[in-house]
Amino acid sequence: MDTLNLPAFGHKIKQVEGKPYIFDELRRKYVRLSPEEWVRQHIVHLLMSHYAYPKALIRTEGGLTLNLTQKRTDVVVFDREGKPFLLVECKAPHVPLTQAVFDQIARYNHVHRAPYLIVTNGLTHYCCCVDHDTAAITFLDDFPVFDRAE
């Protein structure tokens, strides 16, 4: 897998019928290792280890309905009241972070209404704060620490 612009973590990889699988600590099972999954696992571990997000409040591959279509969010972090706090859209390292990617997370956030959004391909990361009352978007220099959700 590609070297990412994210801290390394102690991951477990195994082969199943010649295909790589990585252990997902949140789902407590091995999942197929794709370039996007590699980024997702790194970002989840970063949020837990460096930004103090509790494992119990992070959900990966969560479903949502958007315009009568089932979609999947890469990562949703909830606050202590169970409301979406942070939404993360992960792309493979070779996928550029274009306007279409930002449009995608904005559509998903129309349902979730999280105050923070992250878009990453493992090499480049963008984080923004969304004011749902004014529709103002402010790009941040860093990811929010979990203490802000309390």
From TrEMBL:
It comes from the Bacteria. InterPro entries: HSDR_N. Residues 35-144 form the Type I restriction enzyme R protein N-terminal domain. This is Type I restriction enzyme R protein N-terminal domain-containing protein.
